[in-house]
């Protein structure tokens, strides 16, 4: 029974660790040009060359020059077809792609990449402002950060429970049950908000731009979100089972103690 209990705890640790890694990579999506990060994004938008209004779009040459970017990157963006320029949006950063060039930066350092001012029928707008507005007004990273902190705290509790000691184990199991319940509810809310926000942004951008802007959802980020949430549910159920078994064993031990006391009193 002891070996089975520790085996279940070890399996729960593995599941919790995977959930922590998934949430961490989701938070760090688009933070670097490496494919491990740049391919994790909430949504990606670019100009639709098949739109009848596409021919009225022009790229402002002054918008591609920055103090930190090289002349090569600015020239590549300026010479590229507008339909090949895309922006990937993550929780903390975004990635700008043009031809074979890709630049990623955080929202606090947007000035380090070309701003891409587009002129549409004498009206100018910044392509990166869409990502900035989404980050500041629609989806916030606070829920995801809080969930990562809770998953790390739960992981520490699980590592303690697998040790061959029994001091404070019942208390740690109760604390773990509380933390996993809060985390499950918190990231459940975060997952739904992310899903609905991305869907709404996708439909709104396409409709408001008269299909000039083509938007696609990040399937990898979506999958990571719901897999992590599913794992958090499994960890919560594991703690429910741990506490149930502990309570059952405690009651059985209490009954045995009472029975032993009665037997002793009868002998006396």
Automatic annotation (TrEMBL):
It comes from Candida metapsilosis. GO terms for biological process: conjugation with cellular fusion. It comes from the Eukaryota. This is Fig1 protein. Keywords: Membrane, Transmembrane, Transmembrane helix. The chain crosses the membrane at residues 7-28, 143-163, 175-193, 226-247. The keyword Transmembrane applies. InterPro entries: Dni1/Fig1. One of its GO terms (cellular component) is mating projection tip.
């Amino acid at each position: 029974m002891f070996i089975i209990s520790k085996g279940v705890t070890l399996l729960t640790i593995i599941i919790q660790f995977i959930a922590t890694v998934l949430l961490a990579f989701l938070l760090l999506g688009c933070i670097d040009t490496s494919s491990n990060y740049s391919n994790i994004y909430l949504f990606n938008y670019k100009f639709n060359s098949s739109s009848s209004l596409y021919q009225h779009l022009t790229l402002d040459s002054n918008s591609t020059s920055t103090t930190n970017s090289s002349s090569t990157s600015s020239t590549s963006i300026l010479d590229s077809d507008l339909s090949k320029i895309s922006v990937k949006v993550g929780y903390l950063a975004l990635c700008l792609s043009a031809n074979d060039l890709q630049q990623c930066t955080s929202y606090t350092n947007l000035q380090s990449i070309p701003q891409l001012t587009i002129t549409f029928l004498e009206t100018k707008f910044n392509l990166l402002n869409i990502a900035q507005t989404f980050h500041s007004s629609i989806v916030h990273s606070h829920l995801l950060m809080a969930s990562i902190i809770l998953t790390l705290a739960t992981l520490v509790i699980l590592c303690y429970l697998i040790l061959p000691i029994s001091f404070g184990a019942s208390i740690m199991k109760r604390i773990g049950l509380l933390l996993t319940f809060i985390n499950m509810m918190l990231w459940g809310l975060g997952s739904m908000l992310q899903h609905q926000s991305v869907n709404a942004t996708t439909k709104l951008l396409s409709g408001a731009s008269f299909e000039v802007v083509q938007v696609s959802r990040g399937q990898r980020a979506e999958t990571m979100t719901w897999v992590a949430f599913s794992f958090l549910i499994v960890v919560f159920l594991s703690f429910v089972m741990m506490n149930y078994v502990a309570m059952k064993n405690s009651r059985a031990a209490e009954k045995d103690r009472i029975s032993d006391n009665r037997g002793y009193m009868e002998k006396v």
